[in-house]
Structure formats: C-alpha cells, structure tokens
User: Fold these one by one.
Assistant:
Number 1:
Amino acid sequence: MTNPSKRLLLFTAKLGYQTRSFEDAAHKLGVRLVYVTDRCHQLEDPWGDRAIAVHFETPEVAAYTVMEALRGQDVSGILALGDRPAAAAAYAARGLGIRYNHPAAVEACRSKLRMKEVFRDAGLCVPWFRNLPVDPAPEPVLLGIFYPCVLKPLSLSASQGVVRANDREEFLAAAARVRRLLQSPEILATREANLDQMLVEGYIPGREVAIEGLLTDGALSILAIFDKPDPLEGPYFEETIYVTPSRLPESVQHAIEKCARDATRALGLSHGPIHAEFRVNGDGVWPLEVATRPIGGLCARALRFSFDGASEPIGLEELLARHAHANELPPAS
Ligand SMILES: Nc1ncnc2c1ncn2[C@@H]1O[C@H](COP(=O)(O)OP(=O)(O)OP(=O)(O)O)[C@@H](O)[C@H]1O
Ligand SMILES: [Mg+2]
C-alpha cells in the first residue's frame, strides 16, 4: 500500500456514507483524506483516522488549529460538507494558500438576509424582504407587510422554521413559531449568528429547481439541474422529491444556468461545489439561495459522471475529490 504524502482536507460535521465515498475517492487518487470536524474534541482520535478537532462556530480559530496541525505537510485541496464547515474551510484555505472560496463570500452565503441584499444589488429577481427582531412579536400592520409572505430564520437549513403566511393571523402564528424555534435550547446551542432575528420576504409563486454546480476560479460548471415536482406552496416546505435530468424546456434550463452564474458571481464565490435553489415563473428565474456545499443523500448517489481516464462513470464525491486535489473537471456535456 502506498503512503500518500499529499493531503486532501474534508471539513465536515457529519460522518456517513458521503464521507466514506470521499475516503474511497481519496484512496483511488492516492491522497490521504484528513477530516476536520467538531465531533470529536472530547475524544482522542475516535475513529483512528487522525481527524483534526475544531469548533466550527469560530471559523478563524478552527482554521488556525488546522494550519498548526498541518505545518510542513503537503495539502493539495480542501472540501467542506455543510455551511459551517465551509466557513472554517475558507479561512484555512487562505492560510494554507489553497484555492477555495473567499471567507467573505462564504459568510454571505450563511446569512439569508445578506444573500438577498447581494442578489438585489446585482439586479437579480428578488421579492421584497426585511429582517425583524423575533422579540417582541412584530405587528405586521405597522411594518407594511404584504401577503402572501414567507417567514424564516436567517441562517438555519433543511427548511426549519420556514413558514408561509397569507394574512395577519397566519403571520402572527408563523412569527411565534419561528421565535419558539430560535429560542429552543437545541438551536441556541448551535450559537449560530442572528438567532434573534427573522427574515420576512414576498412569496414567490412558481416551480422550484435546484442545481448542483462546481466552480473553478470563478467559472461555474453545471453538473445537474433537479426539478422538484411537488407543488411546494406551503405553509411548510419539507424536503421533496428531486428529479434529474430536468424536464424543463431547454430555454428555461439555460435561464436557470444563467441565473446560477449571476448569483455565484454576485456573491463572489470562486472555487468548489455549490448547491443552489431557484423558483421559476413568468417573471423570470428567482434565486432562493446558494450554498457552498455539495448535495448529499440519495440525490448525490443518483449522479454519475463520465471522465477522461476513468474506465467507468464516477460518483459526485470522486468528481469533487479530483477537482479539489488536481483541479480536474468532467468534460462539458
Ligand atoms: N420567498 C419564497 N417564496 C416561495 N417559497 C419560498 C420562499 N422562501 C422559501 N421558500 C420555500 O421554502 C424552502 C426553504 O426555504 P430556504 O431555502 O430559504 O430555507 P432552508 O432552511 O435553507 O431550506 P433548505 O435547507 O431545505 O434549502 C424553499 O426551498 C422554498 O420551497
Ligand atoms: Mg434552501
């Protein structure tokens, strides 16, 4: 067995099938996968894999820990699974001189408010929006709220606390729900920023799509467009079925790709995987959000890529490992 001298860093809060896929990919590439994780600071090397233990809530400190741990070692690339790990990864990349997104761009993606401001200032389609304190309970009549609208926390994910309101009663109930969620011990324990605020924005009707993309020095390759065939009209927006390849007309797919390019450029993202969501209607393509992480779960497993030099199609994790390690990209389809 070879003893790889190059290291590929994987910033992640979770271990599971996807991290195992990255391990397999690293093995094939002859690089050593080094985990950077916040799951093991009380245990010494819990998986026997010499993971670097950090706290993702302080990304600069996490980056410093990583740089100290890797002093003198050869790091070829950086990957992150999740929004919080991506922030630490961005700072570490700066320190190690590795290509990755700038920390400011990653931080913008972690705030739904900041992201909306960036999209608005870049002239992209955005609904009206404003941030409100969760306490005291906001009175919509005094705030000039229009209906239908959507209330949401500024920096949670998996549609937690995302609620549609069609009138004042629903708004008040939704605001109370978001407040309860943000003040719950589990959410407070994350020490996420802006837990005292919520975002309210106009409801965007239309179909929803997601894209999986890969940035190389600012140029975005679209790896897949996913249709979300469920209606997703609220009041809650649970995870849904994803269908790829998209069945939307080619002109609409091109408009989505253009919007994805405009949105990533506006955010200043430059390198690595992105997962982005959009709504599409007669007025155009509306970016909902861009996350600096790959898709996970079954959707990731459904993706296969043909690659020069690979005897059979490879999975998303191997594609991302190759890209992070050696800047390799799949041939454009
Ligand atoms: N302004 C809006 N108009 C219509 N639907 C919306 C709006 N904002 C959010 N949604 C719906 O709620 C879902 C979740 O919202 P959002 O992406 O902002 O939060 P999230 O917690 O990051 O969700 P996830 O992690 O599932 O992507 C969206 O995918 C969309 O279906
Ligand atoms: Mg989302």
Number 2:
Amino acid sequence: MGMSRPTLTVGLIGYQFMGKAHSNAYRQVGRFFDLPMDVRMKTVCGRNEAAVSKAAGQLGWEGYETDYRKVLDDPEIDVVDVSTPGDSHREIAVAAAKAGKIVFCEKPIGNTLGDAQEIYDAVVAGGRPSAVFHNYRKAPAVALAKQMIEEGKLGRLYHIRAVYLQDWIADPKFPLVWRLQKDKAGSGAHGDIASHIIDLGRHLLGEFDSVTGLLHTFIKQRPLAGEIDDRLGAAASTDTGEVTVDDASLFLAKFKSGAIGTFEATRFAVGRKNHNRFEINGEKGSIVFNLERMNELEYYNNEDPANVHGFRLIQATDGGHPYAGHYWPAGHIIGYEHTFINLVADAVTAIANGKSPSPNIEDGLRNQIVLDAVERSNASGGWITV
Ligand SMILES: NC(=O)c1ccc[n+]([C@@H]2O[C@H](COP(=O)([O-])OP(=O)(O)OC[C@H]3O[C@@H](n4cnc5c(N)ncnc54)[C@H](O)[C@@H]3O)[C@@H](O)[C@H]2O)c1
C-alpha cells in the first residue's frame, strides 16, 4: 500500500466571479505544479440551493451547503475560502478562524478598518496560516519586476505611477448592484481596485508613510438592480436609489523608503476595461507593467550605452521567469486565471512547509490601513500618516 499524500481540504463560500476563479485555481494547481500536498475541493457554499448545486457540479466540488456554518463544522475541512461580498467577510472569516480553520479571504478583507482588524485579530488568535487574494503579485511579469528590484537593477526607487482603470459603470443607467452600495461593498473603486494597486505598491516599494487623496462620485442616483443576471450586471428597474460609494479614487503617497507615488482607480475611464498599469522609475532604470499585456514587462536600463538607450519588451514567458516554467514553452502566454493558480500554488507550498503564505491576512490589514487613511484624508483634506 502506498503512503497517502497529505491533503489540504477546502470549503469555498461564494461561487460567482471570485468563486469561479478560485475553483479553477484549486482544480488546476496540481496539474501544473508539483505540490507537497494535494488540494481537495470538498464543499462549495451559497444561499440558493438550486444555484449552488449547479455551481458545485460545474466548478468541480464534491458537494455543497447552503449555510456557511456547516462548512465550519466539518472537521475534514482545513481551509475556509471567503469569496463573498465584503459585508459578510467579518462574520464568516472570524467564525472560521474561531473554528480553527485556515482562512483564505478575498480583498479587501473587510468593509472597514474595524472589520479588517477583527478578522486579523481572530486569525492571529487562531494561530493558523492565512492567504489574501491580491492575485496580481502573481503575474510572472510582476514577480519578475519584484525580482529585478530586489536584485538592485533599478537602484534607488524614486516613483511609482499606478492606475487601475475600468469603465463598466460609466453608463448612468447601469443599475445599483452591490458594488455601488456602501453597506455591502464598503467603498467603490477605492476598495475594489485601488486596493490592488496599493498591494502592488507595498509589494514593490515597501510600506506607505503617508497619503493624501480624493474620492469622488459622478453619478449619485441609479436604477435599482432587479434580478442579478450575470456576475457584474443586473437588470435595471424603473425605481432609483442612491449610490453610496466612490466612482473614483485618487491619491498621492510617500513611502517610508523616500519614494513617492500617484495612485488612480476609477470605473469611469471610458474605453479602459481592466487597465491595471504601473510604471516605476529608479536611479538605474524603469519598468512598466500593464495587465492588458500581462505577459510583458517593459524595462529601460539607464546603464545601457546611450546610443542604444530605449525601453525593451521582456516576454516573461521563459522557463527562467517566475511561474512561467510551470506552464508552456517560451512565448506560449498565460492569462488572468493563472494569477490565481500561482497564488494558490504559493499558499499551498507555504502551508505544507509550515511557512506563512504571501500575501496573507497581515497584508490584508496593512492594505486596509492605507485604504482607510485615504478615506480619512478625503474627509479632512490633508495628509494622513499611515
Ligand atoms: N482578487 C480579485 O481580483 C477580485 C476580483 C473581484 C472581486 N474580488 C473580491 O471578491 C469578493 C467577492 O466578489 P465577487 O466579484 O466574486 O462577487 P459576486 O457577486 O460575483 O459573488 C459573490 C458570491 O457570494 C455569495 N454570497 C453572498 N453572501 C453570502 C453569504 N452570506 N453566504 C454564502 N454566500 C454568499 C453570492 O451568492 C455569490 O455567489 C469581494 O470581496 C470582492 O472585492 C476580488
């Protein structure tokens, strides 16, 4: 009889957009990475039985539940993955940590800094590992940028110029879905997408020192959302309701290292679909990443001879590039969903080796501290120390 392999058994709460991305990652990860542990997809949870049972079959789960407490009560489940909207993160994540589970949580971890702190405290008290889905760190080109910075290829860092631009609610008739309601989402573009560029800023330049920012709402009334009919949309009703979150978030930042940055996140950049781009300038060179061309990293080496100065385009698809060797031969590109596979591969490997996954709940809390500082700066009009 062979030795049975160690297994990490997962229960997933929420099965729509992120639920689908995470399910795909759990399903695929062992097919591309040689992991020290198998991932078992035991239970998916949602409140609507017909929909969650269909999702279980389609996404590859052994079974389903309609109450998350059943998932927490299952002694076989090691990991509880919180992929619901922000208003239920605190309740589910705190209960999961108290039940002794490993907590994987979507970003931002809470709707408020208070929620995030409670989740962080419960996870730390539970003494189990955690992971937070800031997946863009795991794009090979971003991981390459991190490597190059650590190797000193850019020298001292001066600037980050980060934008995350979308346009999916630019139509004033787009309905009031949960993402536009403060009680459900906590904030708008700010927590949803500025949180991602904050994570990239922290990952690549280190901790924030202080921020000053502006949150703005262009369209203050929208048709109420009828029946949800796809993951971001809904049929519009004829009644209207108030938009209680920001449509756009802009801020300036100083980093503890002395670097400075600008951050802009909006859902009103007409024509931009998921334009998550940063440029970092250092004394020895510059790098540019854009999610819409996510397999590429632009690199300007200021130490090249002046007659060949210019940005070069690195295809981060070579076996020597981070993550790339787990997939295809050089030039055979990967996509959005692979960032989640890479994140899960790293988290499972860390857990199997008794290490803390990265990013984890502390990154979630530190991210939320920056989000909160920008919100306070918007209210007070001044600089806020992070
Ligand atoms: N990492 C990323 O890039 C990324 C992208 C999108 C969303 N998110 C985050 O993921 C989370 C979920 O967003 P989404 O886009 O998947 O939302 P969604 O609306 O597509 O799906 C939410 C799911 O949660 C379920 N749900 C809601 N309340 C529940 C409860 N109390 N118990 C059980 N199930 C419940 C819904 O039925 C649905 O299945 C949010 O925190 C969001 O900010 C992260």
Number 3:
Amino acid sequence: MKFFFMAWSYLKYKLKAKTKHAVHSPFVFDFITKVMEPHTFKEDYATIEKQVQVLQRNMNSIETVDFGATTANTGYARRLRRVSSIAKKAGIPRKQGRFLYRLIEYYQPEKMLEIGSSVGISTMYQAKANPAARLISIEGCASTAAYAQESVSAVNADNVKVLIGQFEHVLPIALLELEQLDYAFIDGNHNYSSTLAYFELLKQKARNGAVFVFHDIHWSPGMERAWEVIKSSEEVTITIDLFFMGLVFLKKELTPQHFILRF
Ligand SMILES: C[S@@+](CC[C@H](N)C(=O)[O-])C[C@H]1O[C@@H](n2cnc3c(N)ncnc32)[C@H](O)[C@@H]1O
C-alpha cells in the first residue's frame, strides 16, 4: 500500500518538477546553481563515507527501541537489529547526505539541530559542512545513539552533541540550549501531528534566514498534509519540494513562493 502511495506521489512529482530554466526567483536560481548543481568531490566526503562503510559492515546486533510502536506489556517495541541493517535502511543515501553538506556549506548556519540521528550518517555530513557551527542531534534509542556518537568522533566532528531522549521530551531542552536556530533537519517520527508539533517549536526559535529540511514529506498522506500546512504557515516564505525532502526558508524579505524542483 505504502509502495503504491509513494509511487503515485513520485509520478506526480516528476510531472511537476522544474529545472532552473523555469525558475524566475533569483534566490531559488542561486540555490540551484550553488547548492544543487555542484558535484565537485570533497575530502570530507571521503572521510564521512569511509565511516558509513564501517557502519554498513558492522554485524553487531543491538537492542533498539521503536518509538512509533508500542506493545501491551513492555511499552515501546524493542527488537534486535544489526548495525549494518540500520545504517543501510535508516541512514540517508549518499546523494542526499552530500546535498545537505553543500546546503550548510553555502548558507553557513551557526545553530543547527537534527531530529533523528540514528547511527549518525546525516549527522556527519551536516557537522563537517560547517565546523564553526554547533549541532545538537537528538536520538531516542540509546544503543543506536552510541553509534552516532562513535561516528562523529571517528570523523573528528567535535561540534556535535548527541542528545539521547524522546523528541517530545528533549526537543525543548535542545532548543533552550541552542537559544536560537538557523537550521533544522527533521528526520524521525514521520507523522502529521508530530511533524507539525516539532515545526511549531522550531519556528519559535528561528532566526530570520533559517532553513528547515523535512525528510520524507511524501512518505504518507499524513506527511503530505503536514507539508501543506507547513507551506501555508505565515513565517514561511520560500519552500522547495525535492520529493525525498522539503526545504523551508524563513526569510522575511522574500516573497512567498513554492517550488517543486528536480533533484
Ligand atoms: C530515519 S532515522 C534517522 C536517520 C538519520 N537522520 C540518518 O540519515 O542517518 C529516525 C530516527 O529517529 C528515532 N526516533 C523516531 N521517533 C522518535 C521519537 N519520538 N523520539 C526519539 N527518537 C525517535 C528513531 O529511533 C530513528 O533512529
């Protein structure tokens, strides 16, 4: 069912997605040419992707907690999973990781937040892109978070703090600690109400010019509805739908406009 939903959504996206030749906004044209298009190889990619390989080859089994599923007796569902399998299934693909790297490298956000570290694949790309920035990355499953911590140490990303706890509980703490926000990557608990609840909290701390990246905006009908609500929010000016993720710019001086771009 999910497969058919996503396939249908992808088809609609493909039919609507534009290239830079159909974009008249100078801000978005700049985004396409400076963030989306460059494909120069970077030393950091090699460092990060070596650690990704280490994770993808790690056959250790760890007990993970799934905050999206509960059981009658034990609270949240727990299951044994191989680190290799988590890295391959939950981790962001290389193309998207490199895109996040370029996004951060170009806009240079200083106060960054990640909701959903897993084993730290996206965390590494984001942290290495701007070593002068501070990144707090939140993960609920402690045994998974231990690998995120190990990954950021392996690539010498010392600007990251991995915060363990349920998003609902620790997000306000992370925001208090960061004081303000220039960038957020929301990659966990993908459902309508949680996504909008996180967005409400993030908005309150956003500095002008902040960019939020929502992963899996076409994952389910609920996520697509959440994306529409986010797009129509008063503080949001430019939005960019890249199918696997949606970007939201909170930059007052821009005229509100919504784009669907070929990724
Ligand atoms: C898709 S994975 C993140 C992948 C990671 N950003 C990457 O690309 O490498 C989502 C993570 O969010 C965590 N998670 C989901 N719901 C949560 C919640 N309510 N509180 C805390 N963690 C949660 C899961 O344990 C999982 O590790």
Number 4:
Amino acid sequence: MSYTEEYVGVKFRHVKEGELEFDSSLNEIALQLQKALSELPPETLEGVTGNISARLSDGILISATRSKLKNLMVPQDLSKVVENTLGGDIIRYYGSKIPSSETPMHLQVYQNRPDVRFCLHLHLPNLEKLQLLNRFPITKEAYPYGTWELAREATKALGSNDFVILRDHGILAVGNNLDDIIQKIISISQI
Ligand SMILES: [Zn+2]
C-alpha cells in the first residue's frame, strides 16, 4: 500500500514574517537534520515525502512544502515557525517557502510533549503490515493530511510514546535524540 491522498497544498492559514536568517546554531541544527535523513533507507523516502522538524528556543525549524526529504536543501528547504503560533490557527513563519503541510501536527506534539526535541513524519512502504501487527499505537480515526484534527488525533494516540501510526497514512516518530529516532525508523522499516 502506498500513500495516495491527493496533495492540495497546505490547509492552514499562514503569514510570512520575513526571510530566515541562518546563524551558526540554526545552521548546525539544519545540518543535523540533513545528516539524519541521509542515514534513512532510500525506500523510506520514496514517493510523497514526509516532514521533519526540530524544536528551537523560540519556535520550530521544519522542512518546507515542496521539499524532498531525500535531498533536503539547506537553507532553502527549511522554514522557521515562531512559537507564538502554538495553539493559534495562523501559522507565522520565516523562510523562502511555506512550512510543511503537517506543521499543525508538529506544533501540537511540541506543545504537548516538552521532552520532545525532534519530530519525523514518513510514509513507510510497509505501513499496512505495521497496522496489521497491532504492536504500535495507532490513531483511531484517519483524518485528512494537514488538518488540526489529524494533529490532535496523532498527539492523542502518541501519548507518552515515541512512535505512532497515522492510520492509512504514515508514521510519526518523536524524541529528544535524533539518532534514536533514525535507528527506530530503520528497524521498523525492516519489519
Ligand atoms: Zn503524510
């Protein structure tokens, strides 16, 4: 099974606050994301791409719309969403591109989980098998991508776990250590 929901762009309201200035600390985080993605098996990054983010002191850094995780370009494929949007319905961002369509889900996780520093959402090719195994937390309802309903449902099903299946859609892996997240996805992708 592959993820086939039609992409119609972002579903949240958004305001661009300006360009994103990359200082050394932001650059270091960006390169960390890029390096982590390069360690994933290629088949986990095929087709409709997912999204990745990191918590910042004043917001989150997240892959942008129309960026490919297989070949994430720094800095142009990253946007910064500023923290005062948490819980609000307008996404305010800095960067050359609109942040990922799943930004609401990432924001919701960071708001609910102070321990989480990184979030990674992918469309794994073995999703159907993972769902049948009944071994992982899974969302009850399959809400459309990019909605606040999906964001809330994902956060609820995730609970205090570090991994959740978004029913008929993909997976979300979170944690405070990016290497742990990558290792977890590698092992799950081999099931
Ligand atoms: Zn997705």
